[in-house]
Each structure stands twice: as structure tokens, then as C-alpha cells.
Design a protein that fits this description.
Structural class: alpha/beta
CATH architecture: Alpha-Beta Barrel
Largest sheet: 8 strands, mixed
Bound molecules: iron/sulfur cluster, zinc ion
Number of helices: 12
Strand order of the largest sheet: 1-2-3-4-5-6-7-8
CATH superfamily: Aldolase class I
Oligomer: single chain
Radius of gyration: 19 Å
Shape: globular
Strand content: 15-25%
Length: about 350
Amino acid sequence: MKTARASRRRYPRQAASGTTRHRTRANDRLAWTGLDLLNGEIVPSLTVLLTTKGCYWARRDGCTMCGYIADANPDAQSADIQKQLFEVLAQYGTAFKIVKLFTSGSFLDQEELPIDARDAILSALADTPKVIVESRPEFVTSEICGDVVRSNRHVEIAIGLETSNDDIRDSCINKGFTFRDFVRASKVAHSDGLTVKAYLLLKPPFLTEVEALEDAIQSTHDAAPYADTISLNLCNVQKGTLVEALWKKRLYRPPWLWTAVEVLKRVKPIATIICDPVGAGTARGPHNCGKCDRQVILEIKEFSLSQDSASFTATCADQLLWKYVLEFEKFSYGAPLVP
Ligand code: SF4
Ligand SMILES: [Zn+2]
């Protein structure tokens, strides 16, 4: 960690923003359907990407792995944003048990999503059993949660905690808030009857593979009392970010899928934990040797629905190499041993 943090200072907070697409904007789709867990049951879900002016933190400083701001529209108006949702609902219908609304920022930030748009969107989904929105903790206040509940009682607030370690969140991610901020937001949301999801980031830059593994496990233990669900997000290399600059210099490698499997198996007894490995199996995404990636990705997705560690059956010769990396990467001063 010391070496990692020292080298962090040689780079800007975030590289110049590029023309990347949102991590979840696969094929430039604005909405897609899937399956998710709701109260232990596998149910159909709809994910909707709403284009707003984007995350204020990204405009001001930004997190080291996040290129979402490239998807923003600085001129987005309230009526346009509402129209985006209603067009998706007209196409896909409203029969989904879970609807996820992603804005590439904070749904609860009134500067990003005007109040009338927020309330109209949540009211339109009042009969959906679970509506997931994302927000930084500073927008999770009693006043805003009260407004949210008046429009929709089934909202879950997903917060990008990333790690419970303030030092890593500050030095490696530049997130701009503390674990205490997350705990406060969680308590406020729960006191209004809302649920909370914590996003944890597996392998922020400047951590070795084993440090990343241990951090994700510790963070799950720390966040579990305050989160109804944990989502383990495997870091991928987005364009225009500091992570990309490091990756291009061979100073960053996305996490091994084996590391994700290890975390999921070890924290299962203490939390409901899901994982959707975005970009997995590619050089920019979490990956193994290439031969076993597909199978491991499928097993991670299966585990996310079943919450059963028996989902993990894959084996591959590269597990030996992965174990070698866990043991010896600390001697390479933070540089990945294997691409
Ligand atoms: S990770 Fe979240 S808080 Fe950080 S810049 Fe991206 S959208 Fe904003
Ligand atoms: Zn393999």
C-alpha cells in the first residue's frame, strides 16, 4: 500500500475526460431486461439509463476509475429526462418487479435531476415492488428521503461506498466522502423505510491483488450491518480515467475473476452479495487466463441469483498462477505480475 500510494501522487486525480460510454451502456442501449433477486426470489428486472447533466463530483474532481461523465448531457432538461423514462416504459411495459434507474450520477441530486422529474419518475413506478436509484450519500437527507417516500415507498438507494477503508477510498479512488457519511446516509434511508445497497469496488488502483481481496472482504463485513444488499463491482478500465492511464503504462490490471469468486465465497455467510462482472473476459475488464473466463463469469452470475456457493465448480490451470500473484505481487512494487 505504501508504494501504491506514493505512486498515486505522480498522476492527476482523473485523466482528461474522453469519449467513453457508460460501463453499463452496452451496445449503446438505453434500457434492457434481466433477472434479479427480490426477497430470495428470481424476478424479471428492467434497467433504464437516464441521461442527465451527470455527476457533480465528476465535473469537479472525479473518481479515479469512473468515465461516466462522458455519457452526460450538460443541457439535459427536466422534461427530456422524464420523456426518456416514459418512452422506455411504453416500449417495455411496467410488469417488472425491479426497475433500476441509473443516471451516471446521483438520482437524488436536485441539481442533476430536477425535483419535478424525480417525483414524476418515482410516482410512475409507485406499483413496482422495488425501484433502485443511485446516489452519493450527501444527497440522502431526511428531507429528500421524505419526498422520495411520498412518491414511491419501494425505493432502494444504491451508494458507491467502494470500500470501508477511508484511506483507500481517499488515496486510491478519490471518492470525496467517508465511511461515516455512508453510515449516516444508510441510517437516514432506513429510518424512512427505504432500503440500501452498497457498491463495493474490487481492486481500486494502487492495490495488489491480495490487498484488493482482503479489502473487499473486510469492507463487506463493515458495510453489511448498514446495507440490505452488497454489490461487488469488479473494476474495469474506462476511457479517460486515471485507471486507464495506469493500465496503459502496465501499472494496473483489472481483478482476476478468481479473486471475485474467492470474495463471494468467503463473505456469503454474512451478506446477500451480488456481482455482475461488466466487461469480464476482456483486457479492460476482470479476467483470468482466457480459457476459463466464460465459465467463471457464468458461475458468478448464477451465484448472484442463487446465493449458493455450490455454483462455483470451475477449475483451471491458471489458478496456480493466480495464487502465485496473490503471494508475490507485493514484491513488484505495485506493478501487475501478469497482464
Ligand atoms: S463513481 Fe460515482 S461519484 Fe464517482 S465520479 Fe463516478 S458517478 Fe461520480
Ligand atoms: Zn483459466
